[in-house]
Input
Amino acid sequence: MANPRVGIVMGSDSDLPVMKDTTEVLEQLGIEYEVVISSAHRVPQKTARYASSAEERGLEVIIAAAGGAAHLAGVIAAETVLPVIGVPIKTSTLGGLDSLYSIVQMPRGIPVATMAINGAKNAGIFAAQIVGINDAAVRKRVKQFKLEMAKGVEQKDEKLQELGVKAYLAEMKK
Amino acid sequence: MANPRVGIVMGSDSDLPVMKDTTEVLEQLGIEYEVVISSAHRVPQKTARYASSAEERGLEVIIAAAGGAAHLAGVIAAETVLPVIGVPIKTSTLGGLDSLYSIVQMPRGIPVATMAINGAKNAGIFAAQIVGINDAAVRKRVKQFKLEMAKGVEQKDEKLQELGVKAYLAEMKK
Amino acid sequence: MANPRVGIVMGSDSDLPVMKDTTEVLEQLGIEYEVVISSAHRVPQKTARYASSAEERGLEVIIAAAGGAAHLAGVIAAETVLPVIGVPIKTSTLGGLDSLYSIVQMPRGIPVATMAINGAKNAGIFAAQIVGINDAAVRKRVKQFKLEMAKGVEQKDEKLQELGVKAYLAEMKK
Amino acid sequence: MANPRVGIVMGSDSDLPVMKDTTEVLEQLGIEYEVVISSAHRVPQKTARYASSAEERGLEVIIAAAGGAAHLAGVIAAETVLPVIGVPIKTSTLGGLDSLYSIVQMPRGIPVATMAINGAKNAGIFAAQIVGINDAAVRKRVKQFKLEMAKGVEQKDEKLQELGVKAYLAEMKK
Amino acid sequence: MANPRVGIVMGSDSDLPVMKDTTEVLEQLGIEYEVVISSAHRVPQKTARYASSAEERGLEVIIAAAGGAAHLAGVIAAETVLPVIGVPIKTSTLGGLDSLYSIVQMPRGIPVATMAINGAKNAGIFAAQIVGINDAAVRKRVKQFKLEMAKGVEQKDEKLQELGVKAYLAEMKK
Amino acid sequence: MANPRVGIVMGSDSDLPVMKDTTEVLEQLGIEYEVVISSAHRVPQKTARYASSAEERGLEVIIAAAGGAAHLAGVIAAETVLPVIGVPIKTSTLGGLDSLYSIVQMPRGIPVATMAINGAKNAGIFAAQIVGINDAAVRKRVKQFKLEMAKGVEQKDEKLQELGVKAYLAEMKK
Amino acid sequence: MANPRVGIVMGSDSDLPVMKDTTEVLEQLGIEYEVVISSAHRVPQKTARYASSAEERGLEVIIAAAGGAAHLAGVIAAETVLPVIGVPIKTSTLGGLDSLYSIVQMPRGIPVATMAINGAKNAGIFAAQIVGINDAAVRKRVKQFKLEMAKGVEQKDEKLQELGVKAYLAEMKK
Amino acid sequence: MANPRVGIVMGSDSDLPVMKDTTEVLEQLGIEYEVVISSAHRVPQKTARYASSAEERGLEVIIAAAGGAAHLAGVIAAETVLPVIGVPIKTSTLGGLDSLYSIVQMPRGIPVATMAINGAKNAGIFAAQIVGINDAAVRKRVKQFKLEMAKGVEQKDEKLQELGVKAYLAEMKK
Output
């Protein structure tokens, strides 16, 4: 098996149902990845080691997901020069606004590329866009992916024009 | 000089004008402290070392101040069993709400005792309250401090009763 | 039975399902506690008496939980020099942001150590960290607690590496 | 001098520049008042005594102003059956949203009638509306006050029609 | 039947399940009331007439409840010198923050006494506190009401002391 | 069939259950419309073409609905001089506040007329009000619509007066 | 002079410095307008009369600006079938979020087309877009306006390409 | 001169004083860039062309800055498979929260890597981290940059230890 190019880290396995979308889109785009549970607060040294060794292990991008006072992405970004993508996880109290602020408002010098709250799928696509800069095959697959997405919208629109609003809605409920 | 009992850490010297209030109240309450600049993101290992060695160096409480995606207090709390007090620093864009969320919304297992935005003085008082549990002299000084604060309010009220609103306001402007 | 060292106060018994986490973690860490229902607004004098007598009754830390215009922690902090920890309870309208602001934004002079919204477990851990400063047995138990928490993360990660994402998720749903 | 019918309490003399508007409108409406500085947190017993004795001292309404974790109005409302009006004071970090939430989100049983952030003038008018229910002279003055306010708007509009936008703006800048 | 002293107005019958709490507490406190559905936007003239005739019809206080861009209380306050109490109704999108801002942030000159989001019960109690200023029987009932509320808290606390946390929680779930 | 005068565009068919309200009210008001699925991000060129050709195709008003980083209405407004109405769709994380900000805060020069979050029905009514300026039949139907709405409120109020609160509520639950 | 086609209403002359932008853009686009000061709360009947007579007086669009609990636009929309555009005015405490919510979150049946906070210029442009549907001359001027705006951006870009960042910034500061 | 590898686009030249930080850090890190003013709303076709031709023109990363309803980054991301970094510009009314939401909350399929509000410097660093994946010289310069940043923190800390708080603050004010 090829070496992983993208590392996906999450602070808790409770983030996995969201982050599975990242793994699926990376598979769809043909990019090797690994998934790791490693909390910034509960196992800080494991997390630091993971981040500081990522480059020499051949990773190209790291995706970090966390909720609440979501320090994981920032803590990883502190230990590597690889690009780090952060996914703020929705919280039950503040809807994920706490996660978003904790990830996006990084101080000067240590950026984290922040996705939408629960934006797991986009994290995978963005990683692929980065990888695709120097990998023509990946770039081609990203283009194909976007074309299919566009085609999906057009097909839905065609169906709507054909069925009309009421019949379309009736079918959606099935 | 006695060993410091309270460590004050801030991510940037730009936090110092706010955090000077912590140092002043600790002096007033007769508690030894040290002040350190150590960013969670720019010097993560120094920060981790500071936190993990704090206990054996004799510190009893750590106060951490940071703004924006304020990870400092959480990162320190991950590396020590000493109580960690967090001070969210006001930011020019979100008023410090980003700092507050990043500090207070810690996940289960790793608490940070959060003060008000820019609540530097209260961080010092709270540290003294902790220290005072087992140090009768400190506790006495905290009581004295509260008494004087109460007296200050009463004196202002007396002056207001004496002068009336208009004259009091005129004097405030002087 | 030993005297309680931590007092847990809540404004309403509707906070009890959340605050039970505090009691459980204090039991796990071997710290005596008491639990009291006493509203700042409905029984203000009982609350004031509870707070002002806490020190002489041997309490070392008070934990106060309330929701909405959550004045309980501040009102207690006004009447004692013991450290007061506040737990903002989630509300159905504002998600607990009202509780958070009402607890954390205390004025200069009267700090309340604020936990995350519904952060009941962390309130107990933080109380233990305070108590542990001068109680080696408690401190040791807190360290043990953190080690086990770390071990839990590592075990989950090992399991994830073993099972892969899909099988892990399938097992989570069981 | 007649007994005060309205008590104005503020947590700090820093609120006085805002709350002077309350005193001015009460004077304009011919209602006796008193002004007191009494913090819920710094002098809790003085505050409780003030509130619990207000009724027998002949007060009819209490206005309480505070900022941040603004507990003053709620703490007073806990100790009296007189109607309590709360004025949330603007804060430099959160614009007064913290004050607003701390005052308005009172639990069932203990209402506080909340005004706009820095709504000191309206607190006075509302107190007058309450007093006016059973005092025909006050009610008449409130009506007169509203008529003059309406006339003021109409005069501005007439002037605008006369001058046009540009000349009106030029005059405003003078 | 005696004349109503309190008028309860709501913009839509969808507010009635919340506002029934107002009617219940007013009944408990022995205060006559009337309930009216009258939208500020859908039947503006009916609403204006209701407000402008309220005084001569003998009402002493008006309670207005609305959600979203909640103009009802302000529109009523514009047409009467009676005290107007506003109840912001929770909304499904913004949790009632839109309702709260629309009611509490009234401009200078036209106050609305704002309750908590969905604070229907407190609106009734506050109306009773106003009425009670000049009605000894009502005031006495409000005092009795507060005493019983306090007793309720004390009984819950006693039961908690007796049963302990676990048994109390078990009974709550029944 | 007559040419459509109003174009309804939505970024995804998941917005259709909300936007069906727009279609229903337009039918009720006798205004021809068309419904199109066309995402600003997934099919940008289709969207641009739709907007830039709208005028010559005879549309008079465009309604655009989107959620999250809701660019659709702004992107359409950039390509036409027809009035564009934006409907922010509620989101599961931020309640639709993200959608609202993305639609309403348009820069100088390119307005979007923003409705309430999920305000699909009002978008249709507002389009009818625009169309009605120069179409007496439509204007008359809008007036009739408002009259019936008013009558509906009055009927509910009459029923409430007749039944009383309890019976009315009992009937609502049926 | 031709009859005004657009009515601009504001609750207070303090809104005029913002709303002057509306008047300027309407002049630029050759559309007759009138400007009126008329508060929803201070002169409710004048406001209602203005709105209910607008149609017969020949107005086609009404623009209403207000801040805080900004009811003006909604109150006007309640009394007319003309399209009403709302401009939320920035407030010193909540930045205009209160104004925005009070204007945009209108209940079903009574839409207000909301612009950005302080979006006075866009209110004028949007009114022109509405008027332009049936007035080819106005529509042409709106197109011209958009073309010039586009040209302005292109000229700035050309200048930037010519000067480079530093020189461009230096010139901006002049 | 070498071809630009990073394209910096901003919606208005008013964003240039903030975005100059991006240009400076890219120069420091030795990465060729270009700067373009191109609004998503005022010159949508120019913007679309810029984005859709970026890949063949040899750009590797695009940075887009905008404020308010900030659609620029999303509109560009819709037209290219290159990674797009978004910089939300601070706004005078909502502090940039509107810009942040408009950029970060992108729908599934079209990611934008969002930086902090006004995080112009980090956008440049993040672009360099991306470029550095396959360019050893750039990666080395990023590492050097981080080392110097770390050294800067350490030097400040040393100076603070040497001078103490008061003298350090005195020097900061110079």
Summary: Chain D has a mean pLDDT of 97. The helical segments of chain D are 16-28, 44-54, 72-77, 97-104, 120-132, 136-173.
